[in-house]
């Protein structure tokens, strides 16, 4: 029992305190940049740049948010992103399910070959231009479906779903259903799907996040500005630092005021773009590890 | 033989609904993944729109030669490799250390909150992350300059680019990277901890002798996967953070492929450069996999 102090001479209690301090420090490091943007979004931008908003807003104002919601480009981007996220998620999750379930059927002739057919696409692809040319060839440039179809099946997620089916759904239930005369499709719809809601929740969130945050696919395949998703609209504001034409014409008070609004919009648009997903993911967080775990174990 | 065939056809018939489900994913994957793979041959052709992908003139290695003789070729290969290698070097250990710490945290509520907070940046778009980087690094009133009391425009300094890229990358994804390690640690038999406690092992000793060995296979697997995509450095952040003044370190192959292909419509040239990158990646994947196979029983591909 003499060993209760380790080579650093720390007792369990001291180590425990150190771990708590590390955890708190990590929380601050990760959360502070987001918190800073949040308080800056409610502050006078000149106060922000003068260093008056380290902990609390200064010169409280909602003008940044008013400007964001009054900007028709941002609003349209928001609607576009919402539309792409909803349709894309529905499409992707259906694709994951209809690919994963047949591949759990041990008596399916060709199962290994079909699995390999999908897995190869994880390691090797045609690359940017050949894929672009096929998308063009299939007339999808400027079509919303260009965001969904070329991605095909997300194989890494499909494997997680497949392993969940194999590891977390009792085999006896499926066998019993099939003995009772359920067809494979009916078993899938009536038993497997209802019992797989935890992994479905995880996949829905993963896919929503991916579509909500995606802009590169739209940059290549959706050249029309009116189809741009939110992040792409924000590129002008955040990266190029230019006010949109719509804003400059609606703002009175001249150049100085315009400048101020341009700066405020940077903060508020970041919050507006990030908030939906930051609110969403903690709701299914408890399933992440479960899903990862049952997925990581080979079936 | 005949009986076997009969059995096979019965199994196929028993599974017809399953084939029907697979039909759509297979067709989509074939069209948008496999046909482009076949379309890589435009790297060896002089693509022209009216002759099409498979009918354009064959030019052999012309585009590859052109790439290797282009003035920035070496710089791009070097930048791509270094950016990625440094990201891996700094980024790889962080999630392992974080998960070891969190796993030993005795207060479930604090553990939960820490996890939630650490995952958060993963759910933010690279566009927004880069917007935040621009705000924090702004020469006039950016947070970093306020703290340092300086007015440096970090995004125009080529020496700062890699640090910006790597630090922001760790901030965004290290927390999320923990999830797989935490899930692995959750499978460690608690009897081991009890036994270690009885034997008088400290927290530190428990981490080194129980947790670390438990994580090792997963860590090696992750290392192999990352090393195999070493040349696949993320295009998005680099493209958004690139300025004319930091190009000495931010000029990478992926950005060049995009510019040549999409912006300048040089389809064959862009494909050739991309293919060169893919081939290096595949070679790396094979080499790393061989090494890992020799030194442990972990193998992925």
From TrEMBL, chain A:
This protein's GO CC annotations: plasma membrane
Localization, UniProt: Cell membrane
Membrane spanning residue stretches: 16-38, 84-104, 116-135, 141-161, 191-212, 264-284
Main location: membrane
Coiled-coil regions listed: none
PROSITE patterns per UniProt: ABC_TM1 (PS50928)
UniProt keywords, alphabetically: Cell membrane, Membrane, Transmembrane, Transmembrane helix, Transport
Domain of life: Bacteria
Domain ABC transmembrane type-1: 78-289
CDD domains referenced in this protein's UniProt entry, alphabetically: TM_PBP2 (cd06261)
Biological process (GO), any one: transmembrane transport
UniProt topology in membrane: Multi-pass membrane protein
Family, similarity comment: Belongs to the binding-protein-dependent transport system permease family.
Protein name: Sugar ABC transporter permease
UniProtKB/TrEMBL annotation, chain B:
ABC transmembrane type-1 domain sequence ranges: 77-288
Pfam families, A to Z: BPD_transp_1
Transmembrane parts of this sequence: 16-35, 76-98, 118-137, 214-235, 267-288
UniProt subcellular location: Cell membrane
GO CC annotations, alphabetized: plasma membrane
PROSITE patterns, alphabetized: ABC_TM1
UniProt keyword terms in alphabetical order: Cell membrane, Membrane, Transmembrane, Transmembrane helix, Transport
Recorded superkingdom: Bacteria
Primary location recorded for the protein, binned into one broad class: membrane
InterPro entries assigned to the protein according to its UniProt record, in alphabetical order: MetI-like, MetI-like_sf, UgpAE/MalFG_permease
GO biological process: transmembrane transport
Annotated CDD domains: TM_PBP2 (cd06261)
Family: Belongs to the binding-protein-dependent transport system permease family.
Protein name: Sugar ABC transporter permease
Annotated organism of origin: Agathobacter ruminis
UniProt lineage: Bacteria, Bacillati, Bacillota, Clostridia, Lachnospirales
């Amino acid at each position: 029992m003499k060993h209760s102090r380790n080579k650093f001479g720390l007792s369990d209690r001291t180590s425990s305190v150190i771990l708590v301090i590390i955890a708190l420090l990590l929380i601050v490091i990760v959360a502070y940049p987001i918190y800073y943007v949040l308080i800056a979004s409610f502050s006078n931008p000149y106060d922000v740049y003068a260093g008056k908003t380290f902990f609390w807003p200064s010169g409280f104002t909602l003008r940044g948010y008013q400007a964001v919601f009054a900007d028709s480009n941002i609003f349209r981007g928001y609607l576009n992103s919402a539309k792409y996220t909803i349709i894309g998620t529905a499409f992707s999750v259906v694709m994951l399910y209809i690919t994963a379930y047949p591949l759990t059927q041990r008596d399916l002739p060709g199962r290994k070959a079909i699995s390999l057919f999908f897995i190869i696409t994880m390691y090797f692809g045609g690359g940017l231009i050949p894929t672009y040319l096929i998308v063009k060839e299939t007339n999808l440039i400027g079509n919303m479906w260009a965001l969904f179809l070329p991605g095909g099946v997300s194989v890494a997620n499909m494997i997680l779903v497949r392993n969940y089916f194999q590891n977390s759904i009792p085999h006896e239930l499926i066998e019993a259903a099939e003995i009772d005369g359920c067809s494979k499709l009916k078993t899938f719809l009536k038993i497997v799907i209802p019992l797989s809601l935890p992994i479905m929740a995880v996949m829905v969130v993963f896919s929503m996040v991916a579509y909500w945050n995606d802009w590169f696919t739209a940059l290549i395949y959706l050249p029309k500005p009116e189809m741009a998703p939110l992040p792409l609209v924000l590129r002008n504001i955040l990266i190029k630092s230019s006010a949109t034409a719509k804003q400059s014409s609606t703002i009175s008070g001249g150049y100085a005021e315009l400048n101020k609004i341009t700066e405020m919009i940077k903060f508020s648009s970041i919050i507006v773009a990030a908030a939906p997903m930051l609110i969403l993911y903690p709701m299914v967080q408890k399933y992440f590890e479960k899903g990862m775990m049952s997925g990581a174990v080979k079936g | 033989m005949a009986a076997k065939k009969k059995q096979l056809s019965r199994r196929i018939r028993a599974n017809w609904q399953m084939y029907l489900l697979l039909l759509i994913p297979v067709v989509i994957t074939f069209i948008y993944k496999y046909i482009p793979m076949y379309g890589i041959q435009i790297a060896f052709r002089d693509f022209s729109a009216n002759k099409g992908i498979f009918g354009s003139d064959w030019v052999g290695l012309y585009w590859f030669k052109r790439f290797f003789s282009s003035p920035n070729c070496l710089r791009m290969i070097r930048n791509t490799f270094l950016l990625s290698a440094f990201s891996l070097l700094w980024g790889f250990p962080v999630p392992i250390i974080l998960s070891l710490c969190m796993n030993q945290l005795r207060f479930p509520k604090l553990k939960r909150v820490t996890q939630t907070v650490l995952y958060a940046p993963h759910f933010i778009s690279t566009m927004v992350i880069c917007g935040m980087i621009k705000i924090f690094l702004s020469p006039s009133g950016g947070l970093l300059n306020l703290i340092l009391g300086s007015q440096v425009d970090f995004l125009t300094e080529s020496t700062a680019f890699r640090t910006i890229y790597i630090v922001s990358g760790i901030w965004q994804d290290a927390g999320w990277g923990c999830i797989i390690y935490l899930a692995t640690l959750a499978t460690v038999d608690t009897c081991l901890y009890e036994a270690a406690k009885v034997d008088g092992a400290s927290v530190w000793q428990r981490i080194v002798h129980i947790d670390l060995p438990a994580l090792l296979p997963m860590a090696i697997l992750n290392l192999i996967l990352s090393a195999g995509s070493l040349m696949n450095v993320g295009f998005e952040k680099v493209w958004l953070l690139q300025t004319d003044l930091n190009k000495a370190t931010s000029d990478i192959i992926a950005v060049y492929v995009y510019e040549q292909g999409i912006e300048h419509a040089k389809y064959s040239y862009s494909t050739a450069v991309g293919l060169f990158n893919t081939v290096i990646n595949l070679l790396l994947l094979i080499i790393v996999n061989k090494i890992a196979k020799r030194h442990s029983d972990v193998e992925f591909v």
